[in-house]
Amino acid sequence: MSLRPLFAGIEDIAELLESGTAVLTPNRRLSRAVGDAQHQYRLTKGDQVWPSSSILPLRQFWIERWRHAVTRGLIEPKVLVDAAAQRLIWRKVIDADEAVPFSLLSPSRAANLCQEASETLALWRINLDDKAVRQSFSFDEDSRAFLRWESRFREVLLDLDAVTPEQALEELLTCPDALGQSVALLSQDDLPPLHQALCEASPTWQQLTLPHRTAQLLPTRAFSDPAAELQMAARWCREQHERDPLGRYAVVLSDMHSDRDRLEYYLRKEFDCLTQDYASLPVNFATGFTLDRVPLVRDALRILEFSLPEVAVESVIAVLQSRFIKPLTYRKTHRERCIRRLRDLAKERIPQRVMRSVLDDLLDKEACELPWDVVLQLETNGSWHRRPRTPSQWLEPFRAILSAWGWSRGATLDSLEYQQAVQWQEALDSFATQDLFAGALTLPEAIQSLRELLSEQQFQPRTEDQAIQVLGPLETTGLRFDAMWITGMSAERWPAAAQPNPYLPHGLQREQGMPHADAGWERRWAKARWDHWLAGAGEIQASYVNQRDGAEALPSPLIVEVPSKLESEDWTVDERWLVQASKAAFDRVVLNSVPLAKDERAFQGVGASVLEQQSACPFQAFSATRLQATQTPALTAGLLASERGTLLHRALYDVWGSLRDSTQLASITDAELTPVIQRALDYAQLGLLKERLDVIGGDMIALERQRLDVVLRRWLALERERTEEFVVTGREEPREHQLGDLRLRLRIDRVDRLSDGRELIIDYKSGAIGSIKQWLGERPARPQLPLYALLEPPAAGITYASLKPGSEGFKGIGEQEFIKGIESADKQLEDEQSGGMEALRHGWIEELTLLANEFVSGHSPVDPRIDACRYCQRFSLCRLGEELA
């Protein structure tokens, strides 16, 4: 059996349709519903064949009449400029205006608003040549600018022998012979003056009364969270559909742009259509996705943007993983490393040459031709992207780029993806027609223009009629539903706040009753919509969110007549999932320790950080070292903290390679020190990846060099104050050390030999150090320097060297206080203990060996110290805070 019809009044207009009268509707959805109802009505009467009827949206019908008149020679033929082309012309007019007295934050947004303003003026038949009208535009800078732009806009259209749709309809009014068909308007809404004049100029016209019924109003439901409102609406849809599968149900979203995607997810969850039964969802959506957001087209745009000077890192990673790209021949061991390299750049966008450098190491050049090499062959000089072209001329390079990457050849397209591909080709055809308005565009301008064109086109999959409709407030007009759920019915959203066009005088908008002009218009419009819903549904459920930014929100004043009090209701777990969970059997997962294998023990990267992680939390050491679960670098505008540390360490390495000891440091003058520091900074800069240097830019490096120059001079001044002579005998010295069952590979920043032959181990720090008390006791934190104290021959002291501006100095432990900031080892021992550094070493051997053996044995419980989770960010692995059932 078929679903109940969405339009219930076909019997009342059947005679009009049979007589050839055109039935005009306010939207395309109602036109389709009337057409389907007529089809069923004719079949019920026993008709097999019947003449086609004119059932069209109002604006489309008049445009068709204009085209018909042009074809018959009744109206001079002109180019019809659609909304996208109009915005393009507006943008060029605005960009070319040198008399703008203000700075536009978004020229594209300004062009959109100007296009809307121009269309509204035409619909309300406002003559801008009228002196009184022009005077009303003279009191505001925005309005004066619009008048200037509008004049130029008309000149451009005149030069192109083109008209907007509204101008075409105004011409249609001057040709009575073109208005030869009677019309009937299936709507009670007020018409703009231009459409009203067209109706009145027709041979006959009438305004039909829509079928009316009185809806039963259910108690208004209030939710504390927007997601809860949409979740409950989705559950309501399922319950209604299960109760009567042949019924008609609607969810009206007051904010289709924000809520549509979330509601679709909740509907799919309720109807169990998230995976295998994805295409069986019994729901039609009034709006789909903009074409630039659908996966197939989105990846095509990403590939085209690879030809721009800068490329989005996420786009590169997404394309490498896209199913629509013909599989490229990767070096198998390089793919994850390539993605890691891209993320390690810590930038949202990177230069194109950097992207090529990274991908050159990933792709097997012998097995496949590199896509950018194919693109460069478009012209022998490789400068195809530098020459401006018209939109139609850009199509050949665009298609060549996509072909080089194997776009749309990666996998067999399903039905929805095939529809996307067809609409993509249609969009390219539309893009080519912009030659007349756009002129020659650079590559960035062409890609941006294509993206804007795609963002204005809705991809609405062709699906069968379904029982449940998700609609916006305007799209319910004339449709009949058994039940309707209306969201967002709070006082602050319904009626909405007025949004007058900023380029039109507010007084003119209010006087003419233009859309969104003032609060009065918004209230009248909202009340009319509410009356339509009451007349078109058997049952209405209204809902709203009663909390906004911590403040209480009230229901819309338009629904205060609901004969029931409000009930506060929060989302609860679906009983189906509770039943399923109660029947399921869960086995407790026992995590057994997995000792290190031989190849893991020989892993080159195991250093002192392993002991620090094992001390902080055993699971942290396991996930970071054995699972290689490292955090993705955060996006930053300049150098990373790790890069600043690298530059500092390398600069100090080179400085002491030149100075060598305290004697030379004391004797060198500031003038002689300058080339030493500059040479050290040159050497330090070589330690950064070339890709990062390209990404960061020379200005940022120059600033960092200036900062390091100051840091080094301040530090060397402090080193000059040391009273005991020293010689730097070790710089970035590699060491190996066996600790229990674990062999560690270490690198000591610096070793000083003092005047009596004893050694001092120094570790540079550019940030906070903390207290040396953290080295003592069980599970010593930051055990790097205590580990260095166990090396042979034993050092007389271990110390941090803090180069943090304003906090420069030493902090450590030694056999004696031979530098300010290095405390005596005996002071760190308990009162009854003695033995100095030797006693401390004995304790560190015991504690650090225990940590090393725990790591080797696979001991990895989630057991963090108080501060261990602050910078770990591995909660998705350890699931800390979740309670086991």
From TrEMBL:
| InterPro entries in alphabetical order | DNA_repair_protein_predicted (IPR019925), P-loop_NTPase (IPR027417), PDDEXK-like_dom_sf (IPR011604), PDDEXK_AddAB-type (IPR038726)
Name the Gene3D superfamilies on file: 3.90.320.10
- Tell me the ranges covered by the PD-(D/E)XK endonuclease-like domain, including all copies: 608-879
UniProt xrefs under SUPFAM superfamilies: P-loop containing nucleoside triphosphate hydrolases (SSF52540)
Q: What is this protein called?
A: PD-(D/E)XK nuclease family protein
- Write down the species: Congregibacter variabilis
